[in-house]
Design goal:
Number of domains: 2
Helix content: 10-25%
Shape: elongated
Number of strands: 5
Radius of gyration: 20 Å
Length: about 80
Amino acid sequence: MFEAATGARLARFPASGAMASLVRPDIRVKLIASESNWDFRPLPQPVTDSPAQSLARTLERTGLALEGVEVVAAP
């Protein structure tokens, strides 16, 4: 269990026989652990594009268009 505001761990509940995961506070990797194995898996990092660029790319990729504040099928 983690503190939502800071990401600090408040409690750990062991998973007997099941997989458990833990995201590091820097949000770059996730630790996946089981009784016999463990692995670090990278997490996708935030994009550095502007919101306008991200929206334009998504609209182009999905074939949609923006009309005012409505998302519609592109003509």
